[in-house]
Each structure stands twice: as C-alpha cells, then as structure tokens.
Design a protein that fits this description.
Elements lengths: L22 H21 L6 H8 L3 H7 L3 H17 L3 H12 L9 H24 L1 H16 L4 H22 L4 H21 L6 H21 L1
Helix pairs in contact: 1-2, 1-4, 1-7, 2-3, 4-8, 5-6, 5-8, 6-9, 6-10, 8-9, 9-10
C-alpha cells in the first residue's frame, strides 16, 4: 500500500541574489546566508545588517553586497536557504505514517484492536516528530521569523508556505489512502494541531506538558481515523 506524494522539491526553490559559479564562491555565498540566519536567531530580523553579517560570516564587507543587491534580497535568500533545507526534513513524518498503515495492509481497520494499533503508531510518530522539532529551537525561531517577515514581504510568501504545504500534502495523501471523504480538511486539522503544540511546548511546561500533547494528539487521531474508517 503506497502512494505518490506530490510535493515541492528542494531544487525548485528560486534564489534571488547573484549566482555563484565556482565552488569557493558558492561556499562563501552560503556562509553569508547561514550567518544571516544565525543573526536572526540571536538578534531577530532587526539585527540583520551588512556589517554584522560580514563579521559573523568572517568575509569582507564587499562580499555581502557583491552577491546581494540589498539587505532585503539577502534576507530573502537566507530564508530561501532555510526553506530548501527544511524540505529535506519533511519526508520523515509522511514515511512513518505510510509505514504504520502499510503494516496493516489488508487488515480490517474496523476491528477495535487493529484500529488501536494504528492510532497508537500514528500518535507516537507525531509525538516523535514534535520532539525533534522543539529540540532544534534555533530552527523554530527562524521558522517563526520567516513567517512574520513574509507578512511584510510578499516575495517571501510562496517560499514560506512550501515546507508547510509539503507536510500538509503528505498527511492528506495518508488520509486519501484511508478513504477519508475530506482528506484535505483532515490534513489541515492534523497539521494545525501539530504546529500549535510545537509552539506551546517551546514556551515551556507551564504552558503545555508533553503528556497532555500526546493525550490530545491521540484523541484527535482516533476521532479522525474513526470518521475515515466509517466512510
């Protein structure tokens, strides 16, 4: 039981700045973009300045203006790099979900015991995904900064949406396999809850504990799967 997952590929992200041809030039360009992201984590978007980036990347100041015509183009490409790297990490959740379903190939999902096995497997997969996400706090800071900047910069909207859209599409394909009547709606519910819980857990245990997150996820998955199985 497999499904073709239609998602955006990392190599389709379009960068705006000057293209680098030589290997050393590509390394310097990437170093500038990675330095920009580190500054975003440490100081926020307001801290992104040519001199600060040059110092962080340990490159001449002129290098930042050689590859990027202005600070907006530099910030855009830094977020493009982040989105490109993020796409490479979005497949794990989809693969885990499909694997859990594949183990039950041909089984009667209406059977309470089999149904419980699937709910448990999917809940654990989502909990592990959330744990991995919040463990990389810096990337979550960049992610939220990216979304906020996209509200100000229309050029970033499409790229900001790509990693999240890939995850939603993967979840939707899973619900299609189950025969859900509303796989897209189900996917948006699941992904929305995952993103909400990630943010709450990042804020600390006093906001939401992992135990409550797991209990809530299991309840949501159980109800959505029950609807899909009943058809």
């Amino acid at each position: 039981m497999t499904a073709a997952i239609s998602t955006t590929k990392a190599d389709t992200i379009e960068f705006q700045g000057r293209k680098a041809q030589r290997a050393d030039s590509r390394e310097r360009r990437r170093a500038i973009l990675e330095a920009t992201l580190r500054i975003v984590v440490r100081d926020g978007i307001r801290g992104v300045r040519h001199r600060a980036i040059a110092k962080e990347a340990d490159v001449p100041l002129a290098a930042t203006t050689y590859y990027f015509k202005d600070i907006h183009e530099l910030v855009s490409d830094a977020f493009n790099l982040f989105a490109q790297d993020s796409l490479k990490q979005t497949e794990a959740l989809a693969e885990t979900g499909l694997a859990a379903l594949d183990k039950l190939k041909g089984a009667n999902l209406a059977d309470p015991q089999i149904f419980d096995v699937l709910v448990t497997g999917l809940t654990n997969a989502m909990v592990n995904h959330i744990k991995a996400q919040i463990a990389d706090r810096d990337r979550r800071v960049i992610e939220h900064s990216f979304k906020t900047e996209a509200l100000r910069n229309p050029a970033l909207v499409r790229t900001a949406c790509i990693p999240q859209a890939n995850i939603t599409t993967s979840i939707m394909n899973f619900f299609k396999l189950l025969g859900s009547k509303e796989p897209e709606a189900d996917a948006h519910i699941v992904h929305g809850v995952i993103l909400f819980m990630e943010y709450q857990l990042l804020l600390g245990d006093e906001i939401m504990a992992m135990e409550m997150a797991q209990k809530s996820l299991r309840r949501m998955i159980g109800q959505l799967l029950a609807l899909a199985v009943k058809r």
